[in-house]
Design brief:
One of its GO terms (molecular function) is ATP binding. It is found in: Mitochondrion. Pfam families: AAA, AAA_lid_3, Peptidase_M41. The protein is α/β, with parallel strands linked by helices. The chain has helices at 27-41, 43-48, 67-78, 87-92, 99-112, 124-127, 135-151, 191-202, 213-218, 225-241, 249-261, 272-291, 326-347, 357-372, 393-420, 422-435, 440-447, 455-470; strands at 56-60, 82-86, 116-121, 158-164, 180-185, 298-302, 312-315, 437-439. The two termini are 45 Å apart. Bound molecules: adenosine-5'-triphosphate and zinc ion (ZN).
Length: 471
Amino acid sequence: MKAGPRQSQFEPSEGKAVLFSDVHGVDEAKEELQDVVAFLKDPTAFATLGGKLPKGVLLTGPPGTGKTLLARAVAGEAGVPFFLLQGGSDFEEMFVGVGAKRVRELFAAARKKEPAIIFIDELDAVGGKRSSRDQQYMKQTLNQLLVEMDGFQQTEGVIVIAATNFPESLDQALVRPGRFDRIIAVPLPDVRGRVQILQHHLKGVIVGKDVDPKILARATPGFSGADLQNMVNQAAIQASKLHAKDVNIKHFEWARDRILMGAERKSQYIDEKAKLATAYHEGGHALVALYTDGAMPLHKVTCVPRGHALGMTSQLPEDDRNSVSLKEYLAEIDVCMGGRVAEELIYGPENVTSGASSDIRKATRTAQAMVKHWGFSKLGPVFHDDRDESISPKRKEEIEEEVTKLVRGGEARAAALLTAKINELHLLAHALVDHETLNLEEVKKVIKGEPIRNITEVLEEDISNLESASA
Ligand SMILES: Nc1ncnc2c1ncn2[C@@H]1O[C@H](COP(=O)(O)OP(=O)(O)OP(=O)(O)O)[C@@H](O)[C@H]1O
Ligand SMILES: [Zn+2]
């Protein structure tokens, strides 16, 4: 640990400007940051036009997906200075009480150079609900950060961007309106993203004829951008150690395996078998969502990890739902059950994994609320307060029974539906393994047995677009 203030923190960090074109596979996040760039380019004009902006943007996602890179790219695109506060290491010193002061000085420095970006890496180090170390000093630092954020006007031209791998552990005060009120997900790249990231980091590397970024990308599901960059570097080092004339596929395979074995690596890597199992699970959710009357429309399904989940099926409400009908609640339970039911149909009940526990929790919670609060059971429209001690044991049992009935009902409906559509489930799961992410249109085609473009063609097209863009 170094003593004394580090002057460099209060000066914009230097280095070659990063642009959006340096960050790959996170198009949605880039899209969401466009207005921040427009604002920083000309804060007054933006405000005059009535644009509304967050003061703070929170980038969330697994390690190494490019959160820091994205924040730098926002600064680079807008041509504004970038002030960095390293949550992990800088806050280490904060328990000796300099934290609050450092935050104050950093904001003062940034405001002098506005428009500017302040980037706080590992926000959870200071803004976590249960920051380990010295609670009191951490609290002071956090409070100072809140004071600074509350203290400036949107028109001032300072935007705070923070990154965290653990959004759920943040102090709620941080995500209130007027603070970090825009949250942008920066997920692991899918196979197309991985091709682009590899292409980017392969620039300037002399590779052998046997090296095909498409194949490398397909061999690295679950790798982050940082992992991929690391793989390229390690392969190059290995090649030079062996005095090879170029970096060939053997070197890449060696590097890949080394990263996979890396002690510090949380095993994100998914082998083909596990990927197919996840694909069936998510495919089950997706088909039930697609075919169940009253279910929220299917939006996207993926079998690569998102946050703590192995895969994800996302649905989009058609409009703001103020009240929800019985049919819609039942559909919600059915969709939750679809994942586990699909696993059971394909792999047999004895091989079902515990991976569906959050689905089960969600379905159970919905069923409980249906019975206890919304009167959707034979117990009728009676409100049962969770804190009410006077609910009789008999009533508790009846509630349990009704909840179980609802969840079991969902399970049975999902099973009937997926049994009838088993061929579609196979088609969908295998397409997911290839493409990793499918949108609604693609899902509809796949289950009809219609070709969506061959993944190799898609990847090839991506590569030639990239090449012509950089030529
Ligand atoms: N999406 C990406 N496109 C291109 N390169 C990437 C991408 N993601 C990561 N990298 C490479 O990995 C390096 C590390 O990524 P970065 O520090 O931005 O990740 P991070 O999400 O901030 O990680 P952490 O959460 O560990 O701080 C980058 O400098 C870049 O070289
Ligand atoms: Zn699930």
